[in-house]
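User: Sequence recovery, please. Input:
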């Protein structure tokens, strides 16, 4: 549990216990047993903390909507009760009917308000219109993979990404753990992520916020998705699996790998280029090379040219989870094939 949260809860429980002790001291019925009042005060404090834990996923916007709906439901219940529709009921049953009317309309009003969007409130309050969220106010959650990747900083510098970037406390803690790791590679990645956050804070077009979250038994991916739903935010990530989980729960995802793939210059079939072949392909005759943007090109019949540069001709491409994969043939092999075709 977060230390700040634990401190305030402990302080609250202590206050409840002291208040219960004081009340029992001034009450004639409990004056001889002040510990009983302190116990009841602690029980009440624990009950309030339990309610707080149950509603931790409720946003202020949802709470204000529920309050408005409850008030509207109570107003309708008051109008119905004032109509004297239940005057025929007996005196003993009337208070039960009164309670049921208020509970029913209070519940219906609350549920109706929670299901309504902000624009629908203008039908009830015609002279008050809730401000729409503009694109520059878009909230984006950054996960650990997006921060370590580093390209998020370039997106912010170019102006493609603006608004508020939110880093959950558990993501920041994960970066700190990586930066303190005994493994040199993990330590370098963690420090790179922390340096990138410091760089983002100097960008005037965006705002970096650290979101304080309590401890949770859920894994990091589940907490990211839950927080995105609470804040009505999108998630910036390079983790394909987490992105799929978020999309299944109707959370918007900015997959940096996918964005980079879309922005790459397309290679058309028949396009010629020169490429250095660096390793073997999956098939015995294939060799693999990479373009400067990271695109992998698989060249057929080029195993014997690994370590050398070769002229190739693009034959086709496919989109995979890891990115775009391009297939090509050696240029001289393609020329021979065309020559044989013309001869026939």
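Assistant: Recovered sequence (344 residues):
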């Amino acid at each position: 549990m977060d230390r700040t949260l634990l401190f305030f809860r402990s302080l609250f429980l202590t206050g409840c216990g002291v208040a219960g002790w004081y009340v029992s001291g001034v009450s004639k019925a409990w004056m001889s047993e002040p510990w009983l009042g302190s116990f009841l005060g602690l029980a009440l404090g624990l009950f309030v903390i339990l309610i707080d834990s149950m509603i931790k996923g409720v946003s202020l916007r949802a709470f204000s909507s529920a309050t408005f709906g409850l008030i509207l439901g109570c107003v309708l219940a008051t109008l119905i009760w004032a109509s004297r529709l239940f005057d025929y009921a007996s005196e003993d049953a009337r208070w039960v009917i009164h309670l049921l009317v208020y509970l029913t309309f209070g519940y219906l009003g609350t549920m109706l308000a929670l299901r309504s969007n902000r624009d629908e409130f203008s039908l009830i309050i015609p002279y008050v219109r809730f401000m729409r969220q503009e694109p520059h106010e878009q909230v984006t959650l950054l996960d650990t993979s997006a921060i370590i990747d580093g390209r998020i900083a370039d997106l912010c510098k170019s102006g493609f990404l603006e608004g508020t970037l939110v880093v959950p406390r558990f993501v920041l803690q994960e970066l700190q753990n990586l930066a303190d790791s005994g493994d040199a590679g993990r330590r370098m990645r963690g420090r790179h992520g922390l340096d990138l956050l410091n760089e983002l804070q100097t960008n005037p077009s965006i705002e970096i916020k650290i979101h304080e979250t309590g401890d949770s038994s859920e894994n990091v991916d589940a907490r990211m998705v839950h927080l995105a739903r609470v804040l009505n935010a999108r998630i910036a990530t390079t983790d394909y699996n987490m992105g799929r989980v978020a999309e299944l729960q109707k959370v918007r995802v900015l997959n940096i790998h996918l964005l980079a793939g879309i922005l790459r210059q397309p290679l058309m079939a028949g396009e010629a280029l020169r490429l250095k072949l660096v390793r073997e392909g999956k098939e015995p005759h294939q060799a693999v090379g990479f373009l400067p943007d990271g695109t992998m090109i698989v060249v057929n019949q080029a195993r014997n040219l690994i370590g050398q540069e070769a002229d190739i001709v693009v034959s086709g491409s496919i989109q995979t989870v890891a990115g775009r994969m391009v297939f090509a043939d050696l240029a001289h092999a393609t020329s021979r094939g065309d020559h044989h075709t013309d001869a026939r």
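The beta strands are 139-142, 163-168, 206-211, 234-237, 253-255, 272-280, 287-290, 296-300, 309-320, 323-330.
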